[in-house]
């Protein structure tokens, strides 16, 4: 299905795997933090869970969210990931795509399962922090993706109508959260791991932000 940019007033971005190549680092630091607290998990076991918030991920590795052990794992994971962040790179075309949308007076917003502090650091490292003033994180929603809470909070924050909004993400959790919020989704392959079949709920699938920019410029 084609999607003319003229029909879109707001574009909502996921962050990890969408604007910055960080999914592998998340999986590896989750696995290390869990291992340090007596829960043996390979990064390959964690990789399919990246894109969910910790409220979803922790029960899937056998931890009760909010328990002392879970809190310790989350805190250690944040420390480990912060150490990796300065070496992470933006996805191809991330800044160019966001700048293009802003130049065309589209509302650009963020809806991520990351917390506020981590989100801000990720956007700075991706080179787009100065371009995206509207940001919704896990701190603004009770439940993370694939529940629609974060997307719905973004719609409320921006005042955008669902049928004039598109979400851009790299996981099935982004696609499902958008669908449940009544928003169309475009999926990017640059997050890795997921096949086009996994992302088939999206109305369009492209390689990365540069590919989506080219699609909207020339499609």
Secondary structure layout:
Elements: E1 10-13, H1 23-36, H2 43-46, H3 54-60, H4 68-84, H5 94-103, E2 107-111, H6 116-125, E3 134-136, H7 149-158, E4 165-169, H8 172-180, E5 184-188, E6 204-206, H9 209-218
Parallel strand pairs: 1-2, 1-4, 2-3, 4-5, 5-6
How would you describe this structure to a colleague?
Helix content is 42%, strand content 11%. By secondary structure, it is an alpha/beta fold. The chain folds into two domains: 5-21 and 89-218, Rossmann fold (3-Layer(aba) Sandwich); 23-87, DNA polymerase, domain 1. The protein has a six-stranded parallel beta sheet, sandwiched between helices. The relative contact order is 0.19.
What is the architecture of the largest domain at the second tier of CATH? Answer: 3-Layer(aba) Sandwich
Mean pLDDT over all positions: 94
- N/C terminus separation: 12 Å
Largest sheet: 6 strands, parallel
Task: Describe this protein with a few key phrases.
DNA polymerase, domain 1, 219 residues, alpha/beta, Rossmann fold, single chain, 42% helix, 6-stranded parallel β-sheet, 9 helices
Précis, in short:
This protein is of the alpha/beta class. 42% of the residues lie in helices and 11% in strands.
């Amino acid at each position: 299905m084609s999607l003319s940019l003229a029909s879109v007033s707001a574009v909502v971005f996921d962050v990890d795997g969408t604007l910055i190549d960080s999914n592998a680092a998340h999986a590896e630091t989750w696995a290390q933090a869990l291992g340090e607290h007596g829960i043996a998990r390979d990064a390959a076991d964690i990789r399919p869970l990246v894109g969910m918030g910790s409220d979803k991920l922790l029960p899937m590795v056998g931890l009760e969210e909010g328990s002392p052990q879970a809190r310790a794992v989350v805190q250690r994971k944040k420390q480990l990931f912060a150490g990796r962040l300065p070496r992470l790179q933006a996805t191809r075309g991330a800044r160019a795509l966001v700048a293009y949308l802003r130049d065309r007076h589209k509302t650009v917003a963020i809806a991520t399962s990351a917390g506020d502090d981590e989100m801000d650091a990720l956007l700075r490292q991706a080179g787009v922090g100065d371009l995206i003033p509207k940001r919704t994180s896990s701190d603004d929603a009770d439940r993370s993706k694939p529940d629609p809470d974060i997307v719905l909070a973004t719609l409320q924050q921006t005042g955008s109508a669902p049928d004039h909004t598109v979400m851009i993400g790299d996981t099935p959790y982004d696609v499902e959260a958008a669908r449940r919020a009544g928003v169309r989704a475009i999926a990017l392959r640059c997050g890795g791991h997921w096949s086009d079949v996994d992302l088939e709920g999206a109305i369009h699938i492209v390689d990365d932000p540069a590919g989506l920019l080219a699609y909207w410029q020339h499609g």
